Amino acid sequence: MAPMGIRLSPLGIGVFCLLGLGVLYHVYSGFLTNRLSAYLLGDRQEPAAADSMVELRELLAVAVRAAELGGEEVTRVRKSNLLNEKQKGKTKEGADDKMTRGDTLSNKKMYHLIKNAFPGVQVNTEEAIEADDEDSVSWNHDIPAEIKEIIQNPSPVPTDSITIWIDPLDATYEYTENLVHYVTTMVCVAVNGKPVIGVIHKPFTGYTAWAMVSGGSNILRRRSYNLKTPTIIVSRSHSGVVKEVTRETFGNKTEIISAGGSGYKVLSLLDVKEEKQEHADVYIHVTFIKKWDICAGNAILNALGGHMTTLKGEEIIYTGSDGNEGGILASIGMDHDALVQKLADKIPSSGKKSPQ
Known about the structure:
single chain, alpha+beta, 2 domains, disordered C terminus, six-stranded mixed β-sheet, Fructose-1,6-Bisphosphatase, Chain A, domain 1, D-Maltodextrin-Binding Protein, domain 2
């Protein structure tokens, strides 16, 4: 008698294939999660208790909501024209350092929403929070459908590894001049000092850009960038030195855009279709800058394959001091290392030279 062979029905073959695809999906999902964990935690691989962990998608949802709430305060105050403008002093670059009711009320809402949702996280914010200055604002624990659709894999990280940076009103100087298209509210989540989640919200148009490293984003890079003669965007409030450095580096005919707000400048590098949003190829800043001004933009650029470094090409660490002394070089779709080399002999020592 001839040996009997094993025969599978078409249904059996289909079930087998589906099971195989399911196994591959879970392996790939695990691979992505492990990549993110390795990027965030570095050498720290010891397990943490469940109650000492925070899920990054939830942090992103809260960050988006905080930026929106802050934006509501910013627009309300500006429309009332009761800014209560104050002078905090001078920045290290010599520009006026202003504060308004928009800054303080936005700061209060953003800070307390995040702290009420995640009491254990470290929150660094631009404006002071008094011990008795409480707010009952709360998060409803809802993760927007857009975030769930784009970022499908939970990514828990240890609570004590998190630092959140808040900028309740970026471009305050322009805000007082009613140049509101420059104004943003921003939130950044750093894990072990690495910028991982960035949210930039434009309160006067309602536009919000967000991204998570190794997760996803609701914003895209542009299709093309000018590699040979890039358009450079710089600060309008102290642009003397940076314009000089830029022209020495890229030539006297280089197009330079002067603009307010670091959030606005980062968005200029991306695919943002807003009426007054200008577009540039490289963002350069040669003097001291606060970390809450740049962390969110850094995270978004990292998530999209871009770069934000010091002028010397060094990564910026978002722990400890609230300031970055090394200037800013931000790009996407460009050869960032080549830009660093091009600037190497032109930048002021330590990026600290006063503007002219």
